Amino acid sequence: MKKTAPELRQMAADGEKITMITAYDYPSARAAAAAGVDTILVGDSLGMVVLGYDSTVPVTMEDMLHHLKAARRGAPQTFIICDLPFMSCAESGAALRNSARLMKEGGADAVKLEGGEDWAPIVRALTKAGAPVVGHIGLTPQTAGQLGGFKVQGRDLEGARQLLRDALALEEAGAIMIVLEATPAELAATITEKLQIPTIGIGAGPDPDGQVLVYHDLLGMFDRFTPKFVKQYALLEKEIVGAVKAYCQEVKEGVFPDNAHSFSMREDVLKDLLETDAFHAS
Length: 282
Ligand code: KIV
Fold this sequence. Notes:
This protein is of the alpha/beta class. The protein has helices spanning 5-13, 26-35, 46-49, 61-74, 92-104, 120-129, 157-173, 185-194, 215-218, 236-253, 267-275, 277-281, and strands at residues 18-22, 39-42, 79-83, 110-114, 133-138, 177-181, 199-202, 210-213.
């Protein structure tokens, strides 16, 4: 059964950890749902791990919708959050239009946007219009350039205070959950304690109400870089390359396909075929 936002909040209140993983297509969403995740994030990280961009900035609304629809087909009974891509929600009109598309056309249950207290008015407008919003603070990949790169956020007093203000402002504006990315564990614990809504950590230590990882990171399918906070539960890229190599070798050697992977026809039909004029003519 698909979890609801109030149920996710209740899980956090009960101390039951919320699991979230990114998924970007039918097979990854199917696998996530089969594993029993509480929520799926169709993250704009797809720009890097699926589309091969250097950052999430080039990702468009059409990209998000395309991947969201496939993920939704793979996990019809899972709470799906979809990212609003870079500059798709910088003012409330666009935020409302694009969130409506993600929910109505793509089947998202909630939308996620990156940014702190400056974004509270947008979160408020979306919430008022009926769109559940997930916030995302700390390291915000869409604006990593402004943050000086993919760096831990909130390590100094002013940075930590700002993140706390950001979290409180987003909650006050109506956010249903907040992703905390790359923040010191102690700060994430403090923010989690101060908020009523669930926090979801990624590189934020063990205390947030839930955790999220990128599908390709968790499975060892993205080797351009591996952040410290990623735990690889499998090394599938290696497995995949090994399997494709074996296939290529068997084709070259004539080992594949063998009888077990081929179709045959009745001998009398083959004989008739070889004896017909039509066959000889062609
Ligand atoms: O786009 C994404 O995958 C995300 C996660 C890293 C939280 O925002």
